[in-house]
Design goal:
Strand content: under 5%
Order of helices and strands: HHHHHHEE
Distance between the termini: 62 Å
Radius of gyration: 33 Å
Number of strands: 2
Number of helices: 6
Oligomer: single chain
Helix content: 55-70%
Structural class: mainly alpha
Amino acid sequence: MFNDIGPLEVVTLVVLAVLVFGPDKLPKVIQDVSRTIRKIREFSESAKQDIRNELGPEFKDFEFEDLNPKTFIRKQLDNEDLGLKEIRNGFDLKKEMADVADAVHGRDGDSAASSGASGGSGSSSAGRVDMTKKPEKPGPSDPPPFDADAT
């Protein structure tokens, strides 16, 4: 619970507690605080148990820590039943970007790969687009690209 408190901070808290409550009242204050913390924990555990009983047997392995979004997502990503690892490993972002760039420029993926491999002036090499190069501006005699979706 208090993993980030160092020894110097603990000593400071003890000295402060002795100064505020005094050495004669400090043991009673510590007992009262520990009793209050124990009652809060018992209340919390009984509330969790009541919720589990009300949810029924299908939620017997329900953990309240799963309500934290980070924990829930981490648990679901580690779950092998969903097949997310296969999807993540089967997705090649560079290939997808190259396909999109080829579609935008009106080239087939195979012709772009062959022009790049033959040393042509295409901006792709073996089916990949070099995203660091600036696109070539069309000359005065080149017509603007036709976009069928825009018309």
